Amino acid sequence: MDFSAVGAAASEALTLASFIGIGGGVLLGYVVGVIPGLSRSVAISIAIPMTFYMSPFIAISFLIGLSKGTAAGSAVSAILLNAPGEASSAATSLDGYPLAKQGKPKTALQVGLIASVLGDILATIILIFVAIPFARVALLFGPYEMAAILAFALVFIAGLSGGNIFKGLAAGGLGIFLGTIGLDNQTGLPRLTFGYTELMDGMPLIAVAIGTLALSEMFIQSEKLRYDRENMSVALKKDSSDRITWPIFKNILPTILRGTGVGTFVGALPGLGPSVGSFMSYGMAQKAAKDPETFGKGNPKGIAAAESADNAVIPAALIPLFGLGIPGNVSAALLIGAFAIHGITVGPLLLRDNPELLYSIFAGMILASVIMLVLGWYGLMVFAQITRVPPHVVIPIVIFFCLAGMMLQGYGTFGLVILMAFALLGYLMKKYDYSFVTFLVAFIITPMLELNLRQSIILSRGNWEILLGRPIAMFFIACTAIALIALIIRTFRKEKPLADAPAD
Amino acid sequence: MTKSFSRRFIFSLAAAASCALALPAQASDWQPNRPVEMVIMAGQGGGADRLARLFQSIIQQERLARMPFMPVNKGGGSGAEGLRYLKDNHGNPTIIMATLNSYFTTPIQTDLGVDIEEFTPLARMAVDTFALWVNADSGIETLDQYIEAVKAADGAWRMGGTGSGQEDSLVTALLEREFGIRHTYVPMGGGGEVATQLAGGHIDSTVNNPSEAISLWQAGRVRPIALLTPERLESMPGVPTFAELGTPLEYYMQRSFVAPGGLTEEQQTYYIDLLRALSETEVWRNYAAEQALMTDFIYGDELQAYFLSEREMHRELLASIE
Lengths: 504, 322
Hints:
The complex is a heterodimer of chains A (504) and B (322). Chain A is an all-alpha fold and 504 residues long.
């Protein structure tokens, strides 16, 4: 490592202008994240014009700070309102919302924030030391490997929901079915679009996620309001019992470390995305816990697992970007555009041609995490008050944001119709105890799984033996088989489900 | 009515005058009076999207227009969504669309009720080039070796590219027709993913745009074999063209702007002048050179003629695949 460049980078990262720029990015992201219905890629594309007037270093750090801010902020609405702003925070609400309902909203928010910041900083450090030399590891993952990982993720995450296996299969099946809508990449023909050009790219994920996660929850809550008015809002405790303590922190630390590992792995592979990361991490935390039955009922470890992985994905998605010049997701692709606007080509040569800029960005990323900790710590004091606001005030506001967020995505009236349809679906699923987590994960994973699976079939020409030479794929196929067998055994033993998706 | 019109006119004159120092000479009297929607007929993060956002930034930074240009992605169905949107907004002068080759292929492949001849052609900013790439460890260095290897593989040679019916598959079809070879075409996601899979050795060759694979070439993971351009490219030193090697193969990805049909000549002139000013900025020149884009600026009727001949070419090409 070039130490003079590191020194220069640190001094550039610690100027007033960079504090304001990065702090502004984190703040903006945090606010967008807190509001259900607004998503990260929208935040970034709105913010890109703001960066035209910044220096390249501040511009890039601003955008990365923005991403980090949204990831941490989306935990707030997931925990307090059970209305996650993004699919990746749905795992956070599984334990966050029950804990907040138990009168500990601050504890839940603090656990979420600390897990976010730690996951973020650790993954950033991994990015700095691992990105360039080890980015090529991502090249080992071809269609066979990706298909195997996705199949594993599907079975493993679907298995989390517990409950009635047939209801689980129905929910997952519906997710898979809806995931197949859109243009068939191999033949170029539209499937199940009924002539709507809007559906050619598939059901818009944003509408499905906001509808089933946030909007349906508002329907559920407004229904509850009719006969359970008194218990809807939670009074904050005056004493200091509602805060994160050292024993809690010690208890969740291993979970955070594991979550960071999972998030980093998922982030470094182009395409998987934060929702796969956070649910995988949640599932692994539950399997590893001595008290798996407490998951879904307000276990801080559940929050820590989901949030650490969700945040670790963001710096990790930059590993293929800086190491190989490949964007791992849409946010990273928009970042490439932001670099291009400043005349910088991202890729392995950035280290050689522009080491100071690269180290400045790394320093800016660490700074963003620290700012997020401070901002989030004081922010949650304010946001925790939301639980005291009567629901008949909160519910319409959240519904408004869901609709406004959908309009901002540019889907127009069509998007609103889809949003409402999925809100209704989500409402019925929650009401009749079908796992919407299984549904959503199946919906997100199916298009990627299908693409990689069909590529594998073309590449292998239908020959199974080719897998014998692919140890990584074999490993994940074995994992899938084990997860599947475990799931079947559990069903027939009629054991108590490990964790219910919170129906309330 | 008349009053508000004239007031608006005076206002725009005043605005034009106040911007006169910053603006290059505007031949048109017309100016948009609200933010211009810059529709991108592709999804976020792809080549067309990046380019449109770059244009947005240049317009804003160099103060080329009084009103902001807001990019909107309408990429559904290989751009069908954008094409429909443009048709439904006939006569709306505050919408322009950034196009790519799906501008020709999508209306041919799907029954959209859209005839691109009805749209108002503005200007072609650039054409993106294509090259044939192999993995750096494949040992293949020349086109002859490539042809030989593909023939030896007897149809099992794995060519990766974007979705079926899109540009990469068309270029592949051109190669097959020209050299009498057969590939197994593997449709993948975006161009970036295709380049990565080649670098990882999961496929044998691609026809990526140089901009998608240059950084992997610099990193020594992939190797260009030949360019589908008439002349060599400065940003790709030492790489021959197909024409030099005896087979004049050419294919381009065009990057143009169009507007809905029914615009007045003044409105069309406004945008053409704006895009011309844009094409002369230093930021754009540098970017185009670095990304191996060819930047012959054509506009108006000449552009329309180009569109129509390209459409015919694609119609034949698509027919020959099926």
